[in-house]
TrEMBL record:
InterPro entries referenced in this protein's UniProt entry, alphabetically: AAA+_ATPase (IPR003593), ABC1_TM_dom (IPR011527), ABC1_TM_sf (IPR036640), ABC_transporter-like_ATP-bd (IPR003439), ABC_transporter-like_CS (IPR017871), ABC_transporter_C-like (IPR050173), P-loop_NTPase (IPR027417)
SUPFAM superfamilies: ABC transporter transmembrane region, P-loop containing nucleoside triphosphate hydrolases
Residue stretches making up the ABC transmembrane type-1 domain: 1-72
Gene Ontology molecular functions: ABC-type transporter activity; ATP binding; ATP hydrolysis activity
Compartments, as annotated in UniProt: Membrane
Repeat in keyword set: yes
Phylogenetic classification of the source organism: Eukaryota, Fungi, Fungi incertae sedis, Chytridiomycota, Chytridiomycota incertae sedis
Name assigned to this protein: p-loop containing nucleoside triphosphate hydrolase protein
ABC transporter domain boundaries: 130-394
CDD domains in UniProt: ABCC_MRP_domain2
Membrane-spanning segments: 51-75
Length: 404
């Protein structure tokens, strides 16, 4: 509760609920302390009892066997008794840790990171063509499938928008692509290679995910404590100039200047690059990033993920478009970048939440209840009577309504 309160402290303050949270926190600390109090009290109680037993043994021994010379030993008997029982209790408590490790060791493991006998070529995937055939996926063997017979093909370099209502299976589809959840049936081929036959490292290192950065960052820890540099380039593979070019391209520093984040200004520091004539607005690659990127707005977090994807230059990128949490300007900026030269040759699977951006995609995949309902160019789908056309109509109506 304490750590969750820290994360949501701005919300707590916004609702003026500080006192309630302080009281609840204190109540929980009391509950926690009570357990220790009982433990210490029980220990004392036990100490008195064992001292009595020890004393009785000493008395008996003294009366009966003074002449046998064991009195010195019996004097220490009570202490040993207490010590043995306390050590036994501590051992029992500490063995909980061993029990937990044992539990973890029995958790089902992911498939191997590398399968030596079947490694894809170093330059795989070259084009990023995807073929899904009768893909079926379920989150656990005892649950119903959430994707049923999903089949479609995407050519290398195509930009595909995936649409569907909440729970339609859009995220599940992207999880299958990364084999976060293994398909229960069917196959996914990327440039002709069945991804289930290769190691997970070989697969995941070749494709990129730009996740939706939700407010509850614990769900998706996309940024890590460190600096902008360590987040963009954790393995120190790129020159500063490349990172700078990328951040300028996505207009990251501009977003820092206009953003309404509490400590955004703290992250903008002067750097040597301010001296460069090409730097219209500057920041620092050493600006700190808090765990989960909480010192950045959600739009900025997604921009940083976008920059990371641009640097990686993957042939295949999955992009989970941010929802209402990103302002129109940042959204337009993100849309400009993913349609720009940096992603020109990339196959892009984009989970689309706002249909007004859909017209620019090469293809649209409409999912409903885990099934492919429509697949084709946006123009072709507008000719069909189906979910897509209905949704476009509803959204444009809503948009007009908002404009009015
Ligand atoms: N971890 C999980 N365990 C079991 N079922 C899940 C899990 N995650 C999602 N589901 C189920 O899978 C189905 C598809 O969910 P999914 O998250 O893929 O939908 P989505 O289209 O991405 O929705 P949204 O637009 O709300 O993100 C839903 O019925 C959901 O209840």
């Amino acid at each position: 509760m304490f750590s969750e309160t820290l994360v949501g402290v701005s919300t707590v303050r916004a609702y003026g609920a500080q006192q309630r949270f302080i009281e609840e926190n204190q109540a929980r600390v009391d509950t926690n302390a009570r357990c220790f109090y009982y433990m210490y009290a029980a220990n004392r109680w036990f100490g008195v009892r064992t001292a009595l037993i020890g004393g009785t043994v000493i008395l008996c021994a003294a009366l009966a066997t003074v002449s046998l010379g064991i009195l010195t030993w019996t004097l220490q008997f009570g202490d040993y008794l207490v010590w043995i029982v306390r050590v036994q209790a501590a051992l029992e408590m500490n063995l909980n840790a061993v029990e937990r490790v044992d539990e973890y060791s029995e958790i089902e493991q992911e498939r191997p990171a590398v399968i030596e006998s079947n490694r894809p070529p170093a330059n795989w995937p070259q084009r990023g063509a995807i073929t899904m055939s009768n893909l079926e996926m379920r989150y656990s063997p005892d649950q119903e499938p959430v994707l049923h017979n999903v089949s479609f093909s995407v050519k290398g370099g195509e930009k595909v928008g995936i649409v569907g209502r909440t729970g339609a299976g859009k995220s599940s589809l992207s999880l299958s692509l990364f084999r976060i959840v293994e398909p229960s049936n069917g196959s996914i081929k990327i440039d002709g290679i069945d991804i289930s036959t290769i190691g997970l490292y070989d697969l995941r290192s070749k494709i990129t995910m730009i996740p939706q950065v939700s407010f509850f960052f614990h769900d998706r820890p996309v940024l890590f404590q460190g600096t902008i540099r360590s987040n963009l380039d954790p393995f120190e593979e790129f020159q500063d100039s490349e990172l700078w070019a990328c951040l300028r391209d996505i207009k990251f520093w501009e977003s820092m200047q206009t953003a309404d984040t509490a400590n955004a200004s703290a992250a903008v520091e002067l750097s040597e690059d301010t001296l460069l004539p090409t730097a219209p607005i500057s920041g620092s690659l050493e600006a700190s990033v808090a765990e989960g990127g909480t010192n950045f707005s959600q739009g900025q977090r997604q921009l940083l993920c976008l920059a990371r994807a641009m640097l990686k230059r993957s042939v295949l990128t999955v992009f989970d478009e941010a929802t209402a949490s990103v302002d129109n300007e940042t959204d337009a900026n993100i849309q400009r970048v993913i349609r720009g030269p940096a992603f020109e040759d990339t196959t892009l699977l984009s989970i689309v939440h706002r249909l007004r951006t859909i017209a620019d995609y090469d293809k649209v995949l409409v999912l409903d209840k885990g099934r492919v309902m429509q697949f084709g160019t946006p123009a072709a789908l507008m000719q069909e009577d189906g979910i897509f056309k209905t949704c476009i109509k509803i959204e444009s109506h809503f948009h007009n309504y908002k404009s009015v």
